[in-house]
Amino acid sequence: MASTNDLKNGLVLNLEGQLWQVQEFQHVKPGKGPAFVRTTLKQIPSGKIVDKTFNAGTKVETANVDRRNMTYLYKEGDDFVFMDTDTYDQIPVGPAVVGDAAKFLLENSDATVAQHDGKVLYVELPASVELTITYTEPGLQGDRSSGGTKPATVETGAQVLVPLFIDNGEKIKVDTRDGKYLSRA
């Protein structure tokens, strides 16, 4: 059990038998009335997002989640195989659990895998990854960084919008949360 005053991003709560991950929270102390905590929660594994308000100081049940650093090894059938870097145990993770992170997973890349009671809840990638462009239209004379964007395919098969001056074979940094181009690597 924890108090709503102890909430932080990434904490997993057990509300009414379902697991919810705290995406955002805000403590509010209005001029009149008691303080409260406004939260945005994401249901695990469905991904449904809801806004919920708690009275300040209310007790909420937290789930015991084991977050481990793992290395993505390879894809076997539909499953993604991850290896625990401490124990060298390999676990298969289904595509529904990996979700959008699959677009940015490269073999031998690191990820955080969260488990609850032996069941994988979600896979979390670093904030950004470096990927090589496999195909994009060629740039034209005079293309500048302040110009428009063009679609590019990276080595994982994902589509990313990049500035006009980026060419095939270049390494770029991509934000794994929204799939946006950040910079050249």
TrEMBL record:
Coiled-coil segments on the chain, per record: none
Pfam families: EFP, EFP_N, Elong-fact-P_C
Record pathway: Protein biosynthesis; polypeptide chain elongation
Domain of life of the native organism: Bacteria
GO molecular function terms attached to this record: translation elongation factor activity
CDD domains in alphabetical order: S1_EF-P_repeat_1, S1_EF-P_repeat_2
InterPro entries: Elong-fact-P_C (IPR015365), NA-bd_OB-fold (IPR012340), Rib_uL2_dom2 (IPR014722), Transl_elong_fac_P/YeiP (IPR020599), Transl_elong_KOW-like (IPR013185), Transl_elong_P/YeiP_cen (IPR001059), Transl_elong_P/YeiP_CS (IPR013852), Transl_elongation_fac_P (IPR011768)
Domain Elongation factor P C-terminal: 129-184
Subcellular location: Cytoplasm
Keywords: Cytoplasm, Elongation factor, Protein biosynthesis
Residues annotated as domain Translation elongation factor P/YeiP central: 67-121
Listed PANTHER family: ELONGATION FACTOR P, ELONGATION FACTOR P (EF-P) FAMILY PROTEIN
Family: Belongs to the elongation factor P family.
Role this protein plays: Involved in peptide bond synthesis. Stimulates efficient translation and peptide-bond synthesis on native or reconstituted 70S ribosomes in vitro. Probably functions indirectly by altering the affinity of the ribosome for aminoacyl-tRNA, thus increasing their reactivity as acceptors for peptidyl transferase.
NCBIfam families noted in UniProt: efp, PRK00529.1
Protein's name in the database: Elongation factor P
Species of the source: Glycomyces rhizosphaerae
Gene (UniProt): efp
